[in-house]
Design goal:
By secondary structure, the protein is mainly α. The chain has 15 helices and no strands. Keywords: Membrane, Transmembrane, Transmembrane helix.
Length: 358
């Protein structure tokens, strides 16, 4: 109750400042061309970054052999790979595919847009397979579905109904993908759901009973910007909240004493660890402010289809996913492709206006 109330409080604290403005969602030829070129450049940069990063592993196909070992923590990144920092940049192809699809559902169906979408979509599927992230793979696919649904209906009842169906379908899909990729597979769908949904409750109760890590005093929020830097630069600076949570529940950190998995931190446990119940309130306020600001920025996009895709991304990847995986490093790293894409597109827009001015 404290968390929900504080989220609404944070939302309304900035509602007067970040007021939604009406914009022309039709766009013009110049605007459409700008987005086509921007998404095309994002796709090219994504392919280039992945190619440079995988040189140490034998190229685009060679990385597949190592990917599962890297993700499990049983195999570290190859020492001396000077392009390891490019790995997260490859994810901008997913944002490019969202963008091309947004243009398509806005009735812009030129051949270059169709080709761009399929190229970005196929490369993104390959990329997600090398990353071996179950929920990332499913959220990527469901974002297209939800973005399309948003473009076809404004009925809240229909959206909630379809959202509930998507959630159930997502659980069954996660179970199937887990068994296919042999990632945390289960003998039955019941045991899978019980395990996947129970960890927020287990984390909260374990931290409350342990009572030794409830005084981090917002350090996890203060250090959030450093997660934009390569992990080798900051991983030894301080103990992350997720590492502490894993040690409390599993008895050791990931990669130590046979522990191959990590216990993620949900938003309630994250708030509790910042300063007990006052920490929960502060965390809720921060989350509410973040959601309101992001909604304000999404609604300022001038192509309706792009707005729907970004809105779907905001709902699924940030609003929903961050409730269960709220530790700042996971939020930043998980949304790094979006952050990088926004910065790049902002640079493209600045360059476009600068050239026009000259």
């Amino acid at each position: 109750m404290l968390l929900v109330f504080s989220m609404f409080l944070g939302w309304y604290l900035v509602s007067k400042v970040c007021q939604i403005r009406r914009v022309n969602y039709l766009g013009n030829k110049t605007s459409i061309n700008f987005w086509i070129y921007s998404f095309g450049i994002l796709l090219f940069l994504s392919i280039l970054c992945q190619g440079l990063y995988t040189l140490a592993y034998g190229g685009y196909l060679g990385i597949i052999e190592y990917s599962s070992l890297i993700r499990s923590g049983l195999f570290e990144e190859i020492p001396g790979n000077k392009f390891s920092f490019l790995k997260p940049f490859a994810g901008i192809s997913m944002i490019a595919s969202y963008g091309f699809f947004g243009l398509i559902i806005s009735q812009h169906t030129r051949k270059i847009i169709i080709i761009g979408f399929f190229a970005a979509f196929i490369f993104s599927l390959y990329l997600l397979y090398t990353w071996l992230g179950r929920m990332g793979f499913l959220l990527y696919l469901f974002t297209f579905i939800f973005g399309f649904v948003l473009s076809k209906t404004t009925s809240l009842i229909k959206l909630l109904t379809l959202g509930a169906l998507c959630f159930v379908l997502c659980l069954f899909s996660a179970y199937a993908v887990s068994n296919i990729l042999s990632l945390k597979s289960s003998s039955s769908i019941i045991s899978f759901i019980a395990r996947e949904i129970s960890f927020p409750f287990a984390s909260f109760i374990s931290q409350l009973e342990n009572n030794n890590h409830l005084d981090r005093f917002l350090i996890d929020f203060i250090f959030t910007p450093i997660y934009l830097l390569p992990s080798s630069w900051w991983s030894s600076w301080f103990t992350q909240v997720g590492e502490i949570n894993t040690e409390v529940i599993m008895g050791a950190a990931k990669g130590v004493d046979g522990v191959t998995g990590a216990i993620p931190v949900d938003i309630l446990t994250l708030g509790l660890m910042q300063g007990h119940f006052p920490g929960v309130i502060i965390t809720g306020i921060i989350f509410g402010i973040l959601l309101r600001y992001l909604q304000f920025k999404v609604f300022s996009v001038n192509i309706l289809g792009l707005r729907y895709m970004l809105e779907a991304y905001l709902i699924l990847k940030i609003s929903l996913f961050s409730l269960f995986y709220a530790q700042p490093n996971m939020v930043i790293i998980g949304n790094f492709p979006l952050i990088a894409s926004v910065l790049l597109c902002s640079f493209f827009l600045f360059a476009k206006e600068r050239v026009k001015f000259l």
